[in-house]
Specification:
With about 550 residues, the protein is α/β, with parallel strands linked by helices. Helices cover about 50% and strands about 10% of the residues. Strand 3, helix 7 and strand 4 form a beta-alpha-beta unit. The N and C termini lie far apart (about 60 Å). Bound molecules: 6-O-phosphono-beta-D-fructofuranose.
């Protein structure tokens, strides 16, 4: 039976019909204990306030019944037990192993911890050697610039967390991330780097990704052109990969190759060797704290009852908004400059995992799946797209994210920032009625002028949001935050009946690009391409110099 045909689903449908006419204003007015009931506190480091979601206690209990219907407990045990739940790739899903401090895990028979811990120790020694200035380049100068070359999961996680933790990063090291095929990213960066003191980390699980391989090759050519000796490669390149033999072929020394395994998905890999650039920036100790925070969230996820379980509740609220209220997107709005890459990190995590319409059983899914995840720094967004959130008439659930303490305090800034964050979620939820707008306008205008302006001054409100308020933006809290979203994605995938851990949808575009590329050099090859592509190629050829 599909989940949409279950009694649990139908009960939520019926409940939605009863609850949806009730405005958030009314929900707050009716229930003074609402915020206490509809918020969760994780370790006194994360306050998750979901009282501004269009739910009540009944909604939550009906949604948890849906999670039971989907056998969430069983699936969680299967994931943590090392079963190959990534069925289409026949792989286990064990990124949770990467934050553990000891084994055996997932079982004595299948213990991955010895290799996980050995790799973590090697990473720490490597990172410390760079941080202390002991790692020398080919000419004997210490490494001072680190460039991570990778894309997708081999870029977004470490880049996002490097930015989030920049206040505790090594002051004398510069760490950069290059992902784009567009040479406009790598070329200007190379101009600022000294090849004698630069180390490239080639982050690629497969070590075949076109973007990463081309950028790596260009970096290699640049280094050779400047240092003039192939032996320099060994001192200026390291690899983070599940395909060490390909890294060796590239010329990377075996002791500079850090493994990951097929049971780590790219978008879940920041905790693995893929996090090496981050570890170099923040140090092994802070990296360890990140893992500890994530591990605490893992334990919470495995043990807390559904109603008090942050990832489960967050996932269920998303299901409610998407499948029962009809929301097509979800906005992620960090009120913290250091979290500027968090929306793009979540875009991959959520949309590459659950942006699917065929279930794990190969059948079409009978309901909507992942909403479009988008977002931007909240304060900047206020002066750009928030107009649509307030008066565009579309349902756009929002995740507001802020940290109470600033890492870079200046008088007056933090309170104003937080006031804006809290104000926006309140304004979106409660809006402004015509009566309130009329009263306000009456103070400065009257008659026809008032009537003409009135409709523009009304805010419908009822726009649902959650606020994740972090006590501070430190490594353990960020570890917990990322693990929270990872498990949210897992829970939603289970309810939608998806395999959240494969990504077949990215393959077609790669294959088509490979068939177009040769036509740049050999125009005759364009003949077998579609008419639109032929026209685009013809225009490109005219304008390529
Ligand atoms: O094309 C999508 C993807 O496979 C992502 O899933 C992955 O994170 C990214 O490309 C990079 O892959 P790799 O680490 O193998 O270079």
């Amino acid at each position: 039976m599909t989940i949409t045909a279950s009694a649990a689903w139908k009960a939520i449908d019926a409940h939605r019909d009863l609850l949806s006419p009730v405005h958030l204003r009314e929900m707050f007015a009716r229930d003074p204990g609402r915020v206490t009931r509809l918020s969760l506190n994780f370790d006194n480091t994360i306050l998750f306030d979901f009282s501004k979601q269009r739910v009540d206690a009944t909604t939550l209990s009906l949604l948890t019944a849906l999670a039971r219907e989907a056998r969430l407990d069983e699936w969680t045990a299967r994931m943590f037990g090392g079963e190959k739940i990534n069925a289409s790739e026949e792989r286990a899903v064990l990124h949770v192993a990467l934050r553990r401090s000891h084994g055996p895990f997932p079982s004595a028979a299948l213990d991955v911890m010895p290799e996980v811990l050995a790799t973590r120790r090697r990473m720490a020694a490597f990172a410390e050697a760079i941080r202390s200035g002991q790692m020398l380049g080919f000419t004997g100068l210490p490494i001072r610039h680190v460039v991570n070359i990778g894309i997708g999961g081999s870029d977004l996680g470490p880049k996002m967390l490097s930015s989030a933790l920049r206040s505790v990063s090594h002051p004398a090291l510069s760490v950069h991330y290059v992902s784009n095929l567009d040479s406009a990213q790598l070329a200007p960066l190379l101009q600022t780097l000294d090849p004698r003191t630069t180390l490239f980390l080639l982050a690629s699980k497969t070590f075949t990704t076109q973007e990463t391989m081309l950028n790596a090759q260009t970096a290699r050519n640049w280094l050779l052109a400047n240092l003039g000796d192939a032996a320099a490669i060994g001192r200026h390149f390291a690899a983070l990969t599940a395909k060490p033999e390909r890294a060796v072929e590239f010329g990377i020394r075996e002791d500079a190759i850090f493994p990951l395994w097929d049971w780590v998905g790219g978008r879940f890999s920041v905790w693995s060797a893929v996090g090496l650039a981050l570890m170099i920036a923040i140090g092994p100790q802070a990296f360890g704290e990140l893992l500890t925070g994530a591990e605490r969230m893992d334990e919470h996820f495995r043990s807390a009852p559904y109603e008090q379980n942050l990832p489960v509740v967050m996932a269920l609220l998303g299901i409610w908004n998407t499948n029962f209220l009809g929301a097509a997107s979800n906005a992620v709005l960090p009120y913290n400059e250091s979290l500027k890459y968090f929306p793009s990190f979540l875009q991959q995590l959520e949309m590459e995992s659950n942006g699917k319409s065929v279930g794990i059983d190969g059948q079409s899914v009978a309901c909507a799946t992942n909403p479009i995840v988008w977002g931007e720094l909240g304060n900047n967004g206020q002066h750009a797209f928030f107009q649509l959130l307030h008066q565009g008439g579309r349902l756009v659930p929002c995740d507001f994210i802020a940290a109470v303490r600033s890492d870079y305090p200046l008088p007056g800034h933090q309170e104003a920032l937080l006031a804006n964050c809290f104000a926006q979620s309140a304004a979106l939820a409660f809006g402004k009625t015509a009566a309130e707008a009329r009263d306000e306008l009456a103070r400065s205008t009257a008659g026809e002028a008032l009537e003409a302006l009135l409709p523009h001054k009304v805010f419908a409100g009822n726009q649902p949001s959650s606020t994740l308020l972090l006590a501070r933006l430190d490594a353990p809290t960020l570890g917990a935050l990322v693990a929270l979203y990872e498990h949210k994605v897992f829970v939603q995938g289970i309810i939608w009946g998806l395999n959240s851990f494969d990504q077949w949808g990215v393959e077609l575009g790669k294959a088509v690009a490979n068939s177009i590329l040769p036509a740049f050099a050999e125009p005759a090859l364009a003949a077998r391409l579609d008419a639109s592509t032929q026209a685009l190629l013809a225009f490109s050829r005219q304008n390529l110099t």
